[in-house]
Design brief:
The complex is a heterotrimer of chains A (116), B (412) and C (294). Chain A has a domain of 69 residues. Helices cover 26% and strands 12% of the residues of chain A. Chain A has two helices and three strands. The mean pLDDT of chain A is 94. Chain B has 14 helices and 16 strands. Chain B has a six-stranded mixed sheet, sandwiched between helices. In chain B, strands 4-5-7-6-13 form a five-stranded mixed sheet, with helices on both faces. A two-stranded antiparallel sheet of chain B has the order 1-8. In chain B, helix 1 crosses helix 2, helix 1 runs parallel beside helix 7 and helix 3 packs parallel to helix 5. With 294 residues, chain C is of the alpha/beta class. Chain C has two domains: 168 residues, Pyruvate-ferredoxin oxidoreductase, PFOR, domain III (Pyruvate-ferredoxin Oxidoreductase, domain 3); 67 residues, 2-Layer Sandwich (Alpha-Beta Plaits). In chain C, helix 1 packs across helix 5, helix 4 runs antiparallel to helix 5 and helix 4 packs across helix 6. Chain C starts with a helix and ends in a 12-residue tail after the last strand. The chains are: A alpha/beta (116), B alpha/beta (412), C alpha/beta (294). Chains in contact: A-B, A-C, B-C. At the A-B interface, strand 2 and helix 2 of A face helix 3, helix 5 and strand 9 of B.
């Protein structure tokens, strides 16, 4: 993963493309969704969001997902451990040549402070 | 080891060898008596570079099982181990991970559940998990532990199943007990198992997937849960194929159940796990006295092998089930499931229920004799004696002493 | 609407009936899409859960009539009643839905906005109207409102205003005789089928299609709609950035356009636009062939 930092100084530095699409059942005006949507513009689509129980759990309700990237809901209190499992697995699989480095993703925990 | 070798191994070491020979990618770990030796062994091998799998310590069993399932959902072959309190600490994850339909092998080293807290074995821990969607294989010997771990990967990763598997072995009487174990040749095992290449559950940059999604609507939820049941119903056939192939490569044969001197038996003992060995010894004693007795050992507990059990037990004169577990308010757990298997059979035998071995309590030759008396009574009268909680006079006497020492004011 | 179902339930109890009310929703948050069910009887109610054959259907938002995940008229008969808050007339509604029973419709949402200043007040108005249609007494209805409204945390002024809203809302409604259709003989048998094992790519609860939520047209959530006056726009991007759902798109001139199919009407863009180029407009939808898009 590239370690270079990109400075976002201006609103217009943000990507126009959406990486979390509309149509979720989040409340109209949800501040959390706004934050996640903007973060997603930085994280792009080579990402997996690992989630613990909370409002965001309902972002992905079968058969819909708003994400251009991947998603994994774990359980209450489990998102960091789940993210660890994904990260370790990708590292192990890439090290063993079972997954190509370009198939790697960033692993991001998305949860409320109580749920993590 | 570069060729099949026979050596003295504990049940824990056999389990660790299973993970190593299966060439797992990932082992998230958390210690608990009596399985810690498994992860200590794997940690040592991983640090020494003798095992390619990545070993990571987690902060609890709840986290460990999450990491295990998430890694499997990423596409890795995963191994982990726990026991009793640890299994229960991560209990919700058992349902979650099975619901994700990702394969992995979880070795449970069975231990009685608190309270009172103990370290010695019984089967309440693993049987508490019987509804969650994990398949269950219970091993009697250290060899069977190793072999069952290998077969478990083959069964779990089959597209007709794709459910995780618990391999159970008794704490102390198997986990810390050494027996001769033949280690299969690593290249034969990789031929047997191949690599795990999931097409349904993975995390890859180029093909995004949302897993563990919410579901609203009972018919949608039911569909996915029914799929798990159907997958478990495919498992006996997959087990049979895996066992046949295992026998071909390694010379040892395993079934959904295991029978001992059952062919012409009129009286049958039903047991599971390592204490089934005591049952074999009892059968031999009774056979030597001219009695027609046999043993049925429960090996695969999920999927519950109804047909195999019914075939083995229908038509007998009497059957005694020894449950090393207790569903408080009900009694032994497996006897209830066995009764269900036999219910429709016109030749269902009297079914006697015993609870014994809780917390590793010894089941003595004397107690087996009591069971025999009850079996013979049931066989000749057709009357089933009431369930028994096995306890000896000597144990009761000892208990009175202990209670007194503990300051309990018991009558003289 | 859960509150509305409870108002009806409590009013029925106060009038001497036996009642059972229950909501069906997913996430527990106010304003989430939901359905509520109230059963009223003279003797013990031997049923639970979803009402399969309602005698009275109360719909808070007429755009729900065309929502395929809702289908509020399912199980209704020509002997029943449909009560809606709608700016359309009963005749227009009948033509649009083909419903053969009684249709009672008023723009109760406008009344709610007038009395309590919030669209949520429509549930109070509908509860009052429903009680009237059912023949429940005005006294019990008012008692029920006094009991239920404080339970959702409304403070006393709002409760008072809601009681006035309820009084106004029931004007023009009269009790309707609703006879539940008599069911004789065996109920029609639903065909019970065998579920078969699906390959794991199909039978696992995952979503392989990426980013497909726009298929869920959340635009029908709106009560007020944002309307952009591009002549006042300075292309600052603030509305585009601040929309939580990403329902505003920028064209090649950096002018913003609202995707009305998904815009939920939260009006953050109206609040945040520094030149006040975005207006908040009460929305009354025309019927459109495809359904409820504007």
């Amino acid at each position: 993963m590239s370690r270079e930092l990109t400075a976002y100084k201006n609103l217009k530095d943000l990507a126009l493309k959406e990486f979390i699409l509309p149509g979720t059942t989040a409340c109209g005006g949800c501040g959390g969704l706004e934050a996640l949507r903007l973060a997603a513009k930085v994280l792009g689509d080579r990402v997996v969001y690992v989630n613990a129980a909370g409002c965001f759990t309902l972002l992905s309700v079968f058969p819909y997902t708003p994400f251009r990237g991947s998603w994994l809901y774990t359980t209450m209190g489990s998102a960091p451990a789940g993210a660890q499992g994904v990260r370790d697995a990708l590292d192990a699989l890439i090290a063993r040549g079972k997954v190509k480095p370009e198939d790697d993703v960033q692993v991001v925990v998305v949860a409320g402070d109580g749920a993590t | 080891m570069s060729e099949a070798a026979t050596t003295m191994l504990t049940g824990n070491a056999a389990a660790a060898w299973g993970a190593r020979l299966a060439d797992v990618d990932y082992v998230p770990a958390f210690p608990i008596t009596p399985q810690t030796e498994i992860i200590e062994t794997l940690a040592r091998w991983s640090a020494a570079g003798e095992m390619a799998g990545r070993f990571v310590s987690m902060d609890s069993e709840h986290s460990m099982l999450t990491a295990a399932g998430a890694a499997a959902a990423t596409g890795a072959r995963v191994f982990t181990a726990t026991s009793s309190q640890g299994l229960l600490y991560g209990f919700e994850l058992l349902y979650t991970v099975a619901g994700w339909r990702v394969p992995l092998v979880l070795v449970n080293v069975s231990r009685g559940l608190a309270s009172p807290i103990t370290l010695e074995p019984d089967h309440n821990d693993v049987l508490a998990a019987r509804d969650c969607g994990f398949l269950q294989i219970h091993a009697e010997t250290c060899q069977e532990v190793l072999d069952s771990v290998l077969m478990a990967y083959k069964i779990a990763e089959d597209p007709r199943v794709l459910l995780p598997v618990i391999v159970n072995l008794d704490g102390f009487s198997l986990s810390f007990t050494r027996e001769p174990v033949t280690l299969p040749e690593p290249s034969s095992v990789s031929g047997y198992l191949g690599t795990y290449n999931p097409r349904h559950a993975f995390i890859r940059g180029k093909r995004p997937m949302a897993q563990g999604v919410s579901v609203l609507g009972g018919s949608v939820y039911s569909y996915f849960r029914y799929q798990m049941q159907l997958a478990a119903e495919n498992a006996p056939k997959v087990h049979e194929e895996a066992a046949a192939e295992f026998e071909r490569l390694f010379g040892r044969r395993y079934g959904l159940v295991d029978d001992y001197r059952l062919d012409d038996a009129e009286l049958v003992l039903v047991m599971s796990n390592s204490f089934a060995t005591k049952g074999r010894a009892a059968v031999n004693r009774w056979r030597a006295r001219g009695l027609r007795v046999g043993l049925l050992r429960l090996r695969v507990l999920r999927p519950f092998p109804r047909d195999a059990i019914r075939l083995a037990l229908a038509g007998r004169k009497a059957v005694a089930v020894i449950d090393q577990n207790l569903s408080v308010g009900f009694g032994g757990i497996t006897v209830g499931e066995i009764a269900h298997a036999l219910y429709d059979d016109p030749h269902r035998p009297p079914l006697l229920s015993y609870v014994g071995g809780l917390g590793g309590k010894e089941i003595s030759e004397g107690e087996f004799e009591q069971i025999l008396d009850d079996l013979q009574f049931a066989a000749s009268t057709g009357v089933t004696p009431p369930p028994r909680l096995l306890y000896t006079e000597a144990e009761a006497g000892q208990m009175r002493t202990l209670l007194t020492i503990a300051g309990k004011e018991i009558d003289r | 609407m859960k509150t509305a179902s409870r108002v009806v339930g409590t009013a029925a109890l106060l009038d001497g009936f036996i009642a059972q009310d229950s909501p069906v929703y997913g996430a527990e948050r106010r304003g989430a899409p939901m359905t509520a069910h109230t059963r009223i009887a003279r003797e013990t109610i031997l049923e639970r859960g979803v009402i399969a054959n309602p005698d009275l259907v109360v719909v808070a938002d007429d755009t729900l009539l065309d929502d395929p995940s809702v289908e509020p008229l399912t199980g209704t008969s020509s002997e029943g009643v449909l009560l809606l808050s709608s700016a359309h007339s009963p005749d227009e509604l009948r033509e649009h839905t083909g419903y053969q029973g009684v249709i009672e419709a008023r723009d109760l949402l406008a009344l709610a906005l007038e009395h309590v200043g919030s669209a949520a007040g429509v549930s109070t108005a509908l509860a009052a109207a429903a009680c009237k249609l059912l023949g429940l007494s005005d006294g019990s209805t008012e008692e029920a409102l006094k009991k239920e409204l404080p339970q959702i945390g409304l403070d006393p002024q709002v409760v008072k205003a809601s009681l006035r809203l309820a009084e106004r809302a029931r004007v023009g409604f009269e009790p309707i005789e609703i006879s539940p259709p008599t069911r004789s003989g065996r109920p029609p048998r639903s065909t019970v089928v065998d579920v078969t094992y699906a390959p794991p790519e199909i039978g696992t609860p995952s979503v392989a299609a990426p980013a497909n939520t726009p298929l869920r047209r959340t635009g029908n959530w709106r009560v007020f709609t944002p309307v952009i006056d591009l002549s006042k726009c300075t292309q600052c991007w603030i509305c585009f950035v601040r929309c939580p759902d990403g329902a505003i798109l920028l064209d090649s001139f950096e002018n913003p356009h609202v995707d009305y199919g998904v815009c939920k009407g939260c009006l953050i863009c109206v609040e945040e636009c520094p030149t006040h180029a975005i207006a908040k407009v009460r929305e009354v939808r025309e019927w459109v062939e495809a359904g409820f898009d504007r």
